Amino acid sequence: MSADNEAEAQEKLIDLAAEFYDQFERGDIPEMSVPTRTKSNIVFDEDENVWVYGDRESTRSANSVRGARKLLKAIYTIEFLSEQLEADRSSTLRELYYLSESWDVNEAQFSSQDESNQLVEDLEIVSEVTREDFHMRPEESGATIMGPLHLREQTRRGEREIHCQKDVGEGGYQIPNNPDTIEFLDHDADFVLCVETGGMRDRLVENGFDEEYNTIVVHLKGQPARATRRITKRLHDELDLPVTVFTDGDPWSYRIFGSVAYGSIKSAHLSEYLATPEAQFIGIQPEDIVEYDLPTDPLSDSDVNALESELEDPRFQTDYWEEQIEIQLDIEKKSEQQSLASHGLDFVTETYLPERLEAMGVL
Known about the structure:
DNA binding, three-stranded antiparallel beta sheet, Type 2 DNA topoisomerase 6 subunit A, six-stranded mixed beta sheet, 2 domains, alpha/beta, 363 residues, magnesium ion binding, Dna Topoisomerase Vi A Subunit, Chain: A, domain 2, 13 helices, Arc Repressor Mutant, subunit A
């Protein structure tokens, strides 16, 4: 992040605090409005092909004790973030929660990390500055990249150039908290394959899938962190690479795909920055469970409820997803990526993925 960007982020934070004082000066009750972060307030942006927040807003107002406490916490957090930028330091979301215990007003301290996380998200929305530009980091996600990609990363110890096959071990290149500090130098990739589980990611690397098919393998590590979604979007937008998402065959994994492709409810204000609408789902599909006779587990009540909820989720209201979800509700089964090993350890790289990728027009 450049000094100019840091100064802009700091200025926007101070402008936020100044607005509260201006409201006091006008005799108004201080308040801060943010979009309502619920599924019912998600709308489709036809220009960007992503899901974003609608017009409904929630107001944090000092006309109640609860609202006044929220604004007090916002002021303390703004002061902390501004000082952090001034000192060119960074901190984690977890550290912010604990650090608030040292603030001199008890009412300004956070009662839980969920509360401090939500406030940082509120500040992102109203200031139009991402938390990465506030120098706020999540706990390390550990997500990695393996593939024919040469990049330059800006670090506190200077620039370093890395080839994400030749210069890394089998663990791959770890994605930094802010992927915008990366410059793509060169690549020999044909597409990006985002993989949900570590076990499957390791299988692909061990079998040399990244080398044989010129693939950038991105380990999502479950529900992907923002940094993972951001670098995936950059790989698509800047290198013109198709993006595919390879997950388990259950409703929670479909939501992982949805967050990569269309954004999530929590970060809908950043969908244009994080989401890759062109991403394609590559499995495990409910129809694969039947076609390949994969080992399965029965759907739980929560699985069924999640699938039925997805039928109402705007991210899944397509002919493809409605068909797949209906198939799964009918067979009442779910299956993991590793279940493909029932056909042999090489089946996923020699048969399943090549056939799927060819049918999708990626290969």
